[in-house]
Amino acid sequence: MEFDKLDLRNYIKVYDGFLDPPMCSFALADLENRADWSAHQFYNPQTGDLYSTENELDVSYTDIPIRQIINDRLWHALERYILHDFKDFSWWGKWNGYAPIRFNRYTENSNMKMHCDHIHSLFDGNRKGVPVLTMVGLLNDDFDGGEFIMWEDELIPMSAGSLVIFPSNFLYPHRVNPVTYGTRYSFVTWSW
Predict the structure, then answer these.
(1) Which of 19, 71, 104, 127 would be 161's cystine partner, CB 3.0–4.6 Å?
(2) Is residue 45 situated within a structural domain?
(3) 177 within domain boundaries
(4) Domain count, the chain
């Protein structure tokens, strides 16, 4: 089957088993016991202000032990995405690094509205560029709702331990539907 360069879906890759069940359990226990959470905020480029929407998820940059394991694995996932899955395009796939992992917590009724990953806060003067790839990992799946949606209605199936990588540009708007039961935990980072 020939690769359709124009089909945006082809650039979304889900890697099941990125983290095994014991690693997910370890991460969840640490997040539940040690994480400091705050409401997620979006950046408004017109005003320079930060704002939250109703029923916004919580985020944490808490440094828990699993973070280094995830960081090490992310490097290999990026390598797979760029040098193996898209080896014909690897000339454009040079990356300079990725942001510190942010953990996400979606309690009942919380969600993330449709957005694109134009993450201004990554570039503080020391780092130059724009986010190129987004990496989202799911740590549990014992909740209802909370589906990861691309565009308006494209469900990206994920299970506990899976990782999705996709381009961070305006062609990939995405959201997380409201959680209707339980708590959804995930992590995200962006490569530039």
Answers:
(1) 19
(2) yes
(3) yes
(4) 1
Instruction: Report the CATH number that the domain containing residue 49 is assigned in CATH.
Output: 2.60.120.620
Per residue in 150-191, pLDDT tens? 999 999 999 999 999 999 889 999 999 999 999 999 999 988
Position 129 scores a pLDDT of: 67
